[in-house]
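## retry 2 of 3
previous attempt timed out at serialization; input unchanged, resubmitting
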Amino acid sequence: MMKHSHETKLTVWFDGACPVCQREIALMRRLDWRRAIEFVDLQSPESVCPLDRAALLARFHAREVGGEIVSGAAAFAAMWRAIPLLRPLGLAARWAPILRVLEQLYLQFLKVRPRLGAWLSANSQ
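## retry succeeded, writing output
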């Protein structure tokens, strides 16, 4: 786990073996110039899992300090709120109709994620 000189505002659990997730998290790390997010790779043996590891791997999860664990579009919105450049998107997702649309898009993405990951792996070599 990464330690910073200040307390992180958000913890994000991700599948470090997923090519799509690797790229997404690499981008979020670059945008997180304030280091407000602790990224936890669930494939690492040292990772601490507050839920069943399989459940955490099946959907994207995040937790704001002192908050509950959220998943799917709500987890992405929480991550966006922690990144200044993406904060407006995260704030917009607090409006229930927008979050519902984002969740439907996320559910569709989950259906193609394995194929997209395979394509990314094949085309990155």
